[in-house]
Amino acid sequence: MSVDVKTESTTAAEESRNWRTLQRVILPGDADQETLPLYLDAGTSAGAFGASPTTVRGERREKTTRAAEGGNAARFEDVVSRTATSARPGQRLSFSTYFNAFPASYWRRWTPLRSVRLRVQTEGAGTVSVYKSNARGSLQHVETARVSGTVESTFDLSLAPFGDGGWYWFDVTAGADPVSVHRAEWLTDQDPRSNGTITVEITTLNKTDFCINNLRILGAHPEAMTAVKEVIVVDQGTQKVADADGFDEVARALGGKLRIINQDNLGGSGGFARGMYEAVKNSSDYVLLLDDDVVVEPESITRLSVFADYCKKPTLVGGHMFDLHDRNVLHTFGEVVNPYIIGPDEPNPDQEMRHNFAQDTLRETAWMHRRVDVDYNGWWMCLIPTQVIREIGLSLPVFIKWDDAEYGVRAKAAGYPTVTLPGAAVWHVSWIDKDDMVGWQSYFHTRNRFIYALLHSPYEFGGGLVENSLKLDLKHNISMQYYTVQGRIDALRDLLRGPDSLHGMLSTRLPEIRAMAKGYTETQFKPDVDDFPAIAIAKLPRRGKGFSVPSLVKLAPWLAKNVVRQVATPVSAQRQQHPEAVVAHQDNKWWRMSQFDSAIVSNAEGSAASWYKRDPKLVRKLLVDSVKVHGEVLREWPRLKQEYRQALAGITSIDAWEKTFAEHSETSEN
Known about the structure:
By secondary structure, this protein is of the alpha+beta class. Helices cover 31% and strands 23% of the residues. Strands 14, 15, 16, 17, 18, 19, 20, 23, 24 and 25 form a ten-stranded mixed beta sheet that branches. The protein starts with a strand and ends in a 6-residue tail after the last helix. Mean pLDDT is 90; it is low at 46-71.
């Protein structure tokens, strides 16, 4: 490693080198003050830990509280611009944050780069100190340079030690006077494998406010649009983005790069497949898929495309998802699929879900320093090379759910990996504020999960999938979620119809599934609990302790007894006319709900509630139907597996999707 501190004048030799920016330091705007912990930190780097112990593979480290640092916190009022900030006298600012630390291990693993240069432009007297970490989360001081006046400090840094994990970052410490950081960048003089162009595609359904906001963000950050050839909004709703307030303004700001495509509601898979298709047709090198109900950090577009340009081979590069309602909370650091039960949304075993950077910074979180390799990236933000699309096809025609997971695994099987790149992200409504495992979405979860298993499961008959699915049916059934169970049963019946029906069902299955909801009380929502009959407690809790999940030893007999009650015990007239309890959404667990004959249950958003009513006759029917259809799927598994695998290339092909788009699209417009 070498360090060079120089004035604004540079040598001719340095100017002749073609330095490319891999990642620049960025800071939040006025509207994003609450997210400052994602961009800027303060306090010591080496050996500083937060309020609770952190563990890496069983090694426990005690952490001092932040109060011990004297409350030396970064302040938003010291943010000067998108790229500049200032350290107060005696203050130490650290860029060991999600958006500004350099994810060295990812560049080491997936690109040919073996060194990078850090360049920091400062004004004032103080120090610039570089740190690094390893996969175990151990922090190491690399080098410190004293600065005075207006200077540019450069550090040439090796990527060799980062095979399993680790980051680089730097701190700036002010002396008796403030020190300004005008700009900082991570650079290379090595040429990329490509200089790709991007089609940014947003699939939307009646989320006009979100779409206009994101288009406005893109228009206000032209530096993020440098490699963007076109921005496409695939509008599948009835509230058209082109008719929304502010559309003309954002269209002008995007300088002719915006195009609206109106098509019928073909779901997320139909919208994202359209984006893939259009990117191939307009000869872009990448398509960047974005969900509609997100807020994008525009710098992410540049970081994803630059990283993809430098990858050793064409690579799918995705961004992380932060919680839109708790904006410093990272949902997960990487997505994998459990190959035995085919379970999604499972974090790597060496990471934790829902990490709050406002409570524990990157420096303080040891597990986050190990590189996380993934099976796929969610299509809230994912960059896909069009070369991959030309080779393996477009999305599965499955409307919603599992399309992103299946595509990532399909690409991996073809030799194209997926990387979820730290420092690139969107803010999205967290899954904890949704409940898409019940209601109409359960149909798509179930059918598409089984399709995934038929296509990719390494285990005979899908491993533990069928057993797990039967358990889910039972849990929903004894929880009085009958509409959900019926949707899951219909999903498997449609699965048995084979792959040739998938394109035809894209625009029709959702309204059919939703129409079924009219026959189930748990789907009839009212805005206030007082809109339902008064509570009539039918059974007092034992010893006043309420309900609790049974122990593993008692679970089987308890469940058997409960199922018998569900099937055989009639519901009294009182319980049919009056609910027994009001249950908050977070308490809507199968072992609790199975104790009631009726209850008022709030939805995930907290905006409404519905009346769950036990129906023994319906319980019996759904139990029988569930067992029958799962048995039929098992018997037909070899045939279905062969049919779906043989049909995969055809149903995901450009030609197949082109026909579907032609049937369900209006003409394109600017």
